[in-house]
Amino acid sequence: MFGKSINVCIFLWILIFVSVVLAGEAQCRAIVETTYTSNVGQQIPDGPAGGGSGTPLLDTINVPLGFIVSGVEVYLNISMVDFTSDLIVRLTSPGGTQLGLAWVGGGGIPATNIIGWFPTDFTPHDNMDQWIGEYTEGDWVLDCRDYSNNGIGTLNSWQLKITYDDSVATEQESWGQIKALFR
Question: What does the longest C-alpha to C-alpha distance in the chain come to?
Answer without folding.
Answer: 86
